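[Q] Does anyone have a clean structure-token version of this?
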Amino acid sequence: MDDPTQRRERAFLIGIDSGKRARPLQQAKAAREAAANSSRKKNDAGDVSPELPFSAEDSIAELHELASSAGAEVVGQFLQRKEKPDPATLIGSGKLEEIAGAAASSQADLILFDHDLTPSQQRNIEKIVEARVIDRTQLILDIFARHARTREGQLQVELAQLEYMLPRLTGRGIEMSQLGGGIGTRGPGETQLETDRRKIYRRIRHVKEQLEKVRRIRQQQRQRRESAPIATVALVGYTNAGKSTLFNAMTNAGVLSSSKMFATLDPTLRSVTLPSKRKVLLSDTVGFIRNLPHALVTSFRATLEEVQRANLVLEVSDINNPHAREQHEQVEKVLAELEAQNKPRLQVRNKIDLLPPGARDALREDALAVNVSAAKGAGIDHLLEKIDSLIVEDSVKKLKLRVPQSEGKVLAMLEGEANILKRSYRSGFAYLEAELPESVARRVKEFIAK
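[A] Here you go.
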């Protein structure tokens, strides 16, 4: 938990706009086209948020959210428009002098760049601004480190941080020619840099070994689960789309749900009973984001394997977000990296309670999309029905059963795990017509009426 008595670090944000600045007429034309596209989508698909291009201003606003999730207090920001990045300092030494003055007057503790910095750029910038400099990847890694609760999550974050840190020990990348063993590479003549490299490489090997053990245990658990006819449903989506709130609404699990980005890092599995009385395992996963660092996708592969193995993927989106299409594309990129882009999928458009009443009434659904409010519990029953219709594992059968009334345990089990359509009693027997999963039907096959 964060210490409320600890002073929040003061952050100054730097955004980069590398595209050409649109002229006023071009901006007006783009706005008209966005409005026209929004109108068409509203008529055709029931969408209500106008789809806007993701701008540099939007990107720095997202950085502001990330900084707040990391516990920082944002005291200022600057958006630099530059068509070609400066190889030494990204935005130019003259502009950095200006930023240094603004950051100093704001008493900023650190400068956050909405861009990845090379090791040499980071050092060059720190010399000019005389403050700690952090890029977007390092900020996301810090948030992950703050929110990881399980041993597995902590190991995954540490691995990503170590791999990020290694090339930043020098400006020459991760060449380890002096560390290959042999004469002259060992003993007291070793420099501090080489010692640091050795320590990091040793720690990386250790963390990878620990993660491999976790992965083997998870694989064994998964194999045991897969031996039973129970499907897995994975929640995915952009960070802060409301996945954990939806997970809680479907399972009553009490998982932490927060408006902070990446509130959920550690994988959570819970059983959910569908209307057909079939059970599925619901998996909550880490949220995705634009330019999610590759090191994180690699480090969290053990966790994200739940998505790879899922029988159905629920892609949760915030229906109010004007950048829903951009966020969907980012989700697609990560799913493609996980080789899970072709999984059966159901779109879950969340937060309908925040829409104006008229817009909410105009919403329409289709076979592969459902509208819900996870916070209010609206649409959850309908979502479970949709999932039920898409899951093929442990298929439902309609059977007639003749069960002796003395078989109290069997009758109680059927009450809990089957949908009883008709029932009657005569001559000491219960005559039932029921819809029940294949796994339940096998357990009562001796009572199937001939």
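[Q] Thanks! Anything notable?
[A] Residues 20-48, 171-190 have pLDDT under 50 and may be disordered.
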